[in-house]
Every structure is written in C-alpha cells, then in structure tokens.
Amino acid sequence: xxxxxxxxxxxxxxxxxxxxxxxxxxxxxxxxxxxxxxxxxxxxxxxxxxxxxxxxxxxxxxxxxxxxxxxxxxxxxxxxxxxxxxxxxxxxxxxxxxxxxxxxxxxxxxxxxxxxxxxxxxxxxxxxxxxxxxxxxxxxxxxxxxxxxxxxxxxxxxxxxxxxxxxxxxxxxxxxxxxxxxxxxxxxxxxxxxxxxxxxxxxxxxxxxxxxxxxxxxxxxxxxxxxxxxxxxxxxxxxxxxxxxxxxxxxxxxx
Length: 255
Description:
- This protein is α+β, with helices and mostly antiparallel strands.
- The chain is 36% helix and 29% strand.
C-alpha cells in the first residue's frame, strides 16, 4: 500500500481527531467475537481506606523504595514493569521532598486521589486511581503549564525507554481507559519490526494547533530509517491520540 505524503497525512489526521477524538492507530478495536466474561472488580475502597492507600503510595515514592512501589501496582501494571525498571524510572525523576493530599473521591470500583508533590524541581499535581485492592490502577500528572512540544517529547522518551507506565501517565484519563500500558508496549514493539531497533529520539515540533488540539511531530531514529510519531494533545496538554506509522517510510538511499 502506498504511503500518503506527509502534508496529506497531517490533514487527514487532524480531521480524524476532530471527528473521533482519537488517532486511528491507537483507537480501541471493535469487538468481533464473544469473549469470556471477566470477574467483577472489587468494590472501591472507602474514602478513609483510599486516603491510607494514597499515603502508602506517596511514602514509597518519597522514600525511593522501588520494591514497595512495584508491589503497589495493579496486576496490569506489573505485567509491563519490574522492581528494577521502577528503580530506574525513580532515579530519572526529581526527588520528592514532600506531599499534600488535596482530595479523595471514591466511585463504584476505583478511588481517585489528588495530591500535590513537592520536588527539587518544583511542585506537581498528581492524580492516582486506586482499585479496590488498594493498588495503583493508573495515574496522570497535571502538565497544563508545560510547553506542548516538551510534553510530547517526554512521552516518546518514556515509551522508547521501555517506561510504559510512565508513558501511560501522559494520556488523557478517558484515553487511559481505552489504551493500556501493555497496548502501548505492543504498538512500540510492533513498530520496530518494521523500522528496526530504536536508536534515539530527535526533535519535537508543534506542527498544527487549534483552540482544542495540538499536533506535535516527534522525530525518532531507528537503525533502518527515521520517521515521525504524531502526538495529539488537548488544551490541557493531555495526550488524546498517538499515531505510530502504519507504513513507515523506507530507508533513505546512500548519496
């Protein structure tokens, strides 16, 4: 199948996003066959239980205890991580000096905790979704004040470094429910079957912008070729779509 020119692809991607809210390559597939019924999730913790679980989670982050932090992951998150990966991620992030719980809300099966963490590089507001077992189901960070291209670049750096849980934290909460860390991992590994092994992340350029959406192209070099990943963000700098090239451009000829 022929590859559309970049200008045409850019316009089509924007149109698709505005109509559906998702980039096509990471849109959730429609079910085609019946699947086995999954066991019902445990009911959500009470507000006080969720508060206590959040304190344990934040204390593990503050102390830098990678084993404790890994143990607090849900089974879904553990499947794409390990204590050594958690330790590497924690070393790459600014040290947490303190935290303050801002709100705790319990729903039917999960609780959402809002906390402000104080780090050596400034404060961040963090939202943690906790399941009925007191484990981290997912989390996301308020990055509304960060440069859009920087957010997109950090997302690609996380996914290319195998930090799929961190990469998942860049997604809009609704998008997180449709695309798991394991799905991000599968897309990234599948892309490299076409492009060759990852080499490095290049520049991030904001290519298009509307009041509700921003499109950033992040240049990524693989050992067979170099291509752009399309990262689409909303007005709060939360990622609402990612386009991994379905038909990557072939290797460039030798001059």
